[in-house]
Write a structure and sequence with these properties.
Elements: H1 13-34, H2 39-65, H3 74-91, H4 96-125, H5 128-137
Length: about 160
């Protein structure tokens, strides 16, 4: 049975597009690991992605979207926990190969949780004013201009 497509509110679509870029990061990590690319090259890209995109994305979700729900909501608490775990994996994890594998797995699962569950709950609860505030505060800004495309295999 095919799953029904999720009708995303316009206000949340920039966040969903951010998630698309996050899923591409997961794919790039998988490709790099599969083809035994030097871990330093992959890590440099994931560090750049974290600092220039994902960190800001998490902050925007936490500032503009999560407060729509009660602070003790189990979905919001789960999202915060996952944000902190991912932050650790990007910033402090001591073993590069293991952290890259975990980033790929944890970020993929986190994005799918937000897209399939959390965002639906938020858009059901949000008032039109809250949704308009999200639109005003977060726009698509991602540009992937990384020159070392380690995920592309030479022909």
């Amino acid at each position: 049975m095919a799953s029904k497509a999720i009708k995303r509110h316009e206000a949340l679509k920039p966040f969903s597009r951010d998630h698309h870029h996050g899923l591409l990061l997961c794919w790039k990590i998988r490709e790099g690991l599969k083809h035994n690319i030097d871990l330093k090259r992959i890590k440099q890209y994931t560090d750049w992605f974290w600092k220039n995109h994902l960190c800001e994305h998490f902050e925007a979700e936490e500032k503009y979207m999560f407060p729509i729900m009660p602070a003790d909501d189990k979905l919001i608490l789960q999202a915060y926990r996952e944000h902190r775990k991912l932050q650790y994996l990007f910033e402090d994890s001591p073993d590069t190969e293991i952290s890259l594998q975990q980033i790929e797995q944890e970020l993929d699962a986190h994005i799918r949780f937000e897209e399939r569950i959390l965002f639906n709950a938020i858009q059901e609860k949000a008032s039109p004013e809250q949704l308009q505030h999200i639109v005003a505060m977060h726009q698509d800004t991602f540009v992937d201009n990384w020159e070392d495309e380690f995920w592309k295999m030479p022909k």
